[in-house]
Amino acid sequence: MVHSRCFSESSATFTSIPILDFSQTRSPETKSTFLACLRDALVNVGFFYLQNAPIAPLVQHAFTVKALELFQLPLEKKLEIEMVNSPHFLGYSRLGAEITALKPDHREQFDFATELPAPGPDEPLYRNIVGPNQWPDETATPGFRQATERYLSEAGDLTESFTKLIAEALDLPPTALDEAFDRPQQHKLKLIKYPPPPEPSEESSGFQGVGPHKDSGFLTFLLQATPHRGLEVQNKAGTWIPAPPLPGTFVVNIGRALEALTGGICTATTHRVSLREEDFQDVDGQSLGPRFSFPVFQGVSPDLSSARISLVIPDHIRRLVKDEKVKSDAEATFNTMFRGSIGEGTLVARVTSHQDVGQRWYPDVLAKALQGQRDFQSQ
Ligand SMILES: O=C(O)CCC(=O)C(=O)O
Ligand SMILES: [Fe+2]
Fold first, then answer.
1. Hey, which of 112, 293, 350 would you mutate to test ligand 1's pocket, going by the most ligand atoms within 8 Å of its Cβ?
2. Ligand number, closest to the Cα atom of 109
3. Which atom of ligand 1 is nearest to the CA of 231?
4. Which ligand approaches the C-alpha of residue 242 most closely?
5. pLDDT-derived band of residue 5, with 50, 70 and 90 as boundaries?
6. Ligand 2 center–CA 304 separation, angstroms
7. Ligand 1: which atom is nearest the Cα of residue 220?
8. What are the coiled-coil residue ranges (predicted)?
């Protein structure tokens, strides 16, 4: 079985991904069941499917249509908003431009975010992970910006409801995590296209959609917009568990910021997208075309550090956490970097993923990050 409704407790060596139903949060009788399932997913799995999320299907649909149109623009139009122009890591990344776990990802993507101004010159460098978007030419994609901002705004409201639910699932007051966020808070929306993998060959073997990684933010809300399989989640025994798209659901997962804030009680789980030829075909062997997925990464205040946050998590919740170390901890080199401020850790993660942006805007940070990676590997 690939996934399960939350009937019983999972363990850190989960073999299925729980399904939570957001509509249960609306009545006091069912909310406690929801919170129990959420608690289990937070401490053991780090991933769950969410049904009945309050993002209107029409808003999802309008955004998806516009997102697919955006990918159809000619390359020169996309390059007008190439990410390398932006010190805020927003804009277009060509196929293969992003690196995860030391290898290029076989995907093309656009990064957008809640529209906010760039930081002032006196603010810390890492605050530049927040800043204004590069929007595509409105005449080339009429209505794109509006549909995207609408979607991101509804997703932003959902992140706020979830922040309260997570606090409650940890038996904390609903507002306990509020201090982790800026007002307004910037969230990121990534539009991703994974073209079908090249014919298997010597060079293409080991092609990755996106390599094993943990997300940097608080929570991620992922819309799998096509029926392809490929997303996989690693349990603490190191086994990869598939997370295929379930119609009408989002895949929600915990990022490093939430893990750091809760001192590791909530677990940020490693995941990847594999590109297998068979995942790009339907049951009759017909091509499904490219895979599209749209994650929203819930941001936190870049100034936040685990040293500054005073969360006292009750003992009975702490006791739920089994002290199992994952056997292969992807990108473990980032672990120590999240001990400073989250903004600093995130900037290091970004320059390592987008080295062209790093080279242009943050050459010193990039040099240090690459040295850190080399030192880690030679240990
Ligand atoms: O495409 C997906 O399904 C997952 C993408 C992902 O994990 C990421 O971009 O962080
Ligand atoms: Fe991810």
1. 293
2. 1
3. 3
4. 1
5. low
6. 21
7. 10
8. none
CATH number at residue 139: 2.60.120.330
pLDDT tens-digit series, residues 150-209: 999 999 999 999 999 999 999 999 999 999 999 999 999 999 999 998 876 555 556 789
What angle do the packed helices 144-169 and 57-71 form, to 10 degrees?
130
CB neighbour list of residue 335: distance below 8 Å, 6 or more residues apart: 329
Rounded distance from Cα 48 to ligand 1 centre (Å): 14
Q: What is the pTM of this model?
A: 0.93
The partner residues of 233 in beta bridges, in order of sequence, read: 241, 271
Domain that holds residue 176: 3-334
List the one residue out of 86, 138, 143, 76 whose CA is nearest residue 112.
Answer: 86
Q: Which atom of ligand 1 lies closest to the CA of 215?
A: 10
Interacting residues of 167 by C-beta distance below 8 A, sequence separation 6+: 173, 174, 175, 176, 177
Question: Which amino acids bring their CB within 6 angstroms of ligand 1?
Answer: 190, 192, 210, 215, 222, 224, 231, 271, 273, 293, 295
Model-level ipTM above the cut of 0.85: yes
In a domain, 27, yes or no: yes
Q: Given this model, what pLDDT does residue 68 score?
A: 98
Q: Is residue 348 part of a domain?
A: no
The torsion region of residue 347 among left (phi > 0), alpha (psi -120 to 50) and beta comes to alpha
3-state helix, strand, coil in the chain (%, to 5): 35, 20, 45
Which of helix, strand or coil describes residue 366? helix
Q: Give the separation between CA 207 and CA 213, rounded to whole angstroms.
A: 15
At 272-283, the pLDDT tens digits run 999 999 999 999
The pLDDT of residue 330 is 44
Kindly state the DSSP code that residue 305 receives in the 8-state scheme. B
Residue 356 lies in a domain: no
Q: In terms of DSSP bridges, do strands 231-234 and 3-5 run parallel, antiparallel, or are they unpaired?
A: unpaired
Total tally of structural domains belonging to the chain: 1
- For 267-315, how does the pLDDT look when each residue is reduced to its tens digit (9 = 90+)? 899 999 999 999 999 999 999 999 999 999 999 999 987 666 668 899 9
Which of 47, 107, 188, 192 for mutating ligand 1's site (highest number of atoms within 8 Å of CB)?
Answer: 192
For residues 112 and 124, is the Cβ–Cβ distance under 8 A? no
